[in-house]
Amino acid sequence: MRRELVRFEVRRLLRNPFLWAAAAVALAWQLAESWDWAPDLTVDTVSMTGHALLVAAAVLLVANLAASRDRRHGGFDGMAALPGRAAERTWSVAAAAAVVGAAIAAVPIVGYLVIRVAQGPVAGRLDVLEVLTGIAAVAATAALGVAVGRWFPGLVAGPVVLVLLVLATLMNRNLGGYGGWFLPLVLHNGPGWPERPAGTHLGYLIACVALFGSLALLRHRIRVVRLGVALLAVAVAVPAGAVAMAADPNATARERDARVAEPDAWHCEQRDTVTYCAYPAYASWIPHWAAAVGPVAGAVPPVARDRLPEIRQGDGVWLVWPRGAAEATYRNALAGDVAAQVTGIAAERDARGQARTVVALWLLAQTAGAVPDPAPMSVDIGPYTAVGSDIATRETLLGPGYGPAEADCARRLLATPGAREKVWQNWSTLTNPGTTTEQAMALLG
């Protein structure tokens, strides 16, 4: 009898359009947020499991209604004639909701990761345990919905629990809010952060599935097996959640700094005269940075190439990288950073009237293809953690502010035959802070 009930509930849940709509919205939402950004599996995996909160919410509500349906509007009287007892119906709903919810949640999570890998080049590290955590979280919320439906059969109980759970999850930003790792999902992760305690958190969620299922059955009658499973689940869930909480990788900036200081924290390689350092899982992004910096470095005279900065992820280059049209802005901004540093104007807020600003703009144009107007930047830093990114607050692509005079002089220089030889020949004078724009125009002819 129980097997037939489980099959019935599984078929019923699989035909529920609300669950599939939630899965479709979760996938579409996450793809819309990340489509213009290079794949980063370290962040993408967590972000997609975070969007699975939509599926978890739908499963919780549907499971709650299914578990409480025989207690509403005379439903109990209508089901009293069935051969199965109420406890069997509860067990069947709980098992079906947990299995179907986990299966439906797996569709957008796995589908999203497949799409992102196909976009390439992929950076970051795929943590399979994080994927399983998102799936197990939906199973846990399904069992929670059944338990709430049995103990509090009113229609309002499920939505109230759902609202509280969602608010706690959303307010748990960087684990500094409410619930910490005791919540089913922890939404945020950063490329430079140490590994999350995904395995411990997964064990906690599996224990929660057993705990909520047992609590739902205890509503009918206290039996040794049910009580024993509930107590065992508590004995596993509480220490697992506490251990995960104690292992919080995002608690303090000091922990992140200690991680960065470790020798194996970086993958470094030299291209031409520039050294690029990335977190090991982000080495596939180095060609993006080299495409931005290479033309600038090639235009710097050999005597000054020792002044070219090291390109280090999170300090000089951003922890996110765009795809499509926005990539040009990031590429040019990185080129502007290098041009400003090698000419010595990086520390300036306003670099008007200086010859070295003209040189920096000319260097930037080697990558950008043209000298940009002295306009403030307006750019999105993306949906991900962009620690170390100042791109949204910069004055210009170059970094410091400059005026039309410097831009005009740089454009004339860019169009002048033999400009590189002239810049190289007069490099020391042109990059002297005391040399003015007017003097540069005369010096460069």
Provide a compact summary of the structure.
This protein is mainly alpha-helical. 59% of the residues lie in helices and 3% in strands. It has 2 domains: 2-257, no CATH class; 266-443, no CATH class.
Write up this protein.
- By secondary structure, the protein is mostly helical.
- The chain folds into 2 domains: 2-257, no CATH class; 266-443, no CATH class.
- It has helices spanning 2-14, 17-34, 41-51, 53-68, 75-79, 86-119, 128-151, 157-170, 198-218, 224-246, 253-260, 286-299, 326-343, 355-368, 404-415, 419-425, 427-430, 437-443; strands at 267-271, 274-278, 311-313, 316-317.
- The protein has a 4-stranded mixed beta sheet with strand order 1-2-3-4, covered by helices on one side.
- α7 (128-151) runs parallel beside α9 (198-218) and α12 (286-299) packs across α13.
- It starts with a helix and ends with a helix.
- Mean pLDDT is 85; it is low at 384-388.
- Keywords: Membrane, Transmembrane, Transmembrane helix.
Number of strands: 4
Total of domains: 2
Helix content: 55-70%
Strand order of the largest sheet: 1-2-3-4
> What is the alpha-carbon Rg in Å?
29 Å
The amount of beta strand, in percent, is under 5%
Q: What is the mean predicted local confidence, pLDDT?
A: 85
SSE-based structural type: mainly alpha
What is the rounded distance between the termini? 94 Å
- Overall geometry comes to elongated
Q: How would you sum up the major sheet?
A: 4 strands, mixed
What is the string of SSEs from the N terminus onward?
HHHHHHHHHHHEEHEEHHHHHH
Count of discrete alpha- or pi-helical segments spanning 4 or more residues: 18
Low-confidence stretches: 384-388
